[in-house]
Design brief:
Largest sheet: 4 strands, antiparallel
CATH architecture: 3-Layer(aba) Sandwich
Shape: globular
Strand order of the largest sheet: 1-2-4-3
Mean pLDDT: 96
Radius of gyration: 16 Å
Low-confidence stretches: none
Number of domains: 1
Strand content: 15-25%
CATH class: Alpha Beta
Helix content: 40-55%
Number of helices: 5
CATH topology: NADH Oxidase
Number of strands: 4
């Protein structure tokens, strides 16, 4: 139910559950082995063609990427709401991920391994609100 530019939903989601495919995703993600340990990994891909016909190059270069990232964020929130854990993975070889999921015309933008947390790390510090928000008058 994530919002998207023009409601075009210019993204695709690939559900990777097989161990061999998760192993391959972990290799594509530069050895981030926790991907192979999760029972499932969602691969969010931007679909530029869905945005291009209405928004031209801006749809191809930006809106489809935003659509995919918003959908991934909503999936993260839904997983946590169900008592699951996930982590956003953005460091990966795009061509290798495309090969793992068997696609050519979409662009992988995020991997979300999902499962039950093996540990509960301490919360990390955040920037001060004043460093993030800026008043424009």
């Amino acid at each position: 139910m994530a919002p998207s530019a023009g409601n075009l939903q210019a993204y695709e989601v690939y559900v990777v559950g097989g161990q061999n495919k998760r192993d391959a995703l972990a290799r594509a993600a530069l050895g981030q082995d926790f991907i192979r340990e999760a029972p499932v990994c969602l691969v969010f891909c931007a679909n530029p063609a869905r945005s291009a016909f209405r928004y031209g190059s801006r749809g191809v270069q930006l809106y489809c990427i935003q659509d995919a990232t918003i959908a991934a964020t909503f999936a993260m929130l839904a997983a946590v709401d169900q008592g699951l854990a996930t982590v956003w993975v953005g460091a990966f070889d795009e061509e290798m991920v495309r090969s793992v999921v068997g696609v050519k015309s979409v662009r992988p933008v995020a991997l979300l391994p999902i499962g039950y947390a093996a540990e509960r790390p301490e919360p990390m510090g955040r920037r001060a609100v004043e460093d993030v928000f800026h008043q424009v008058k």
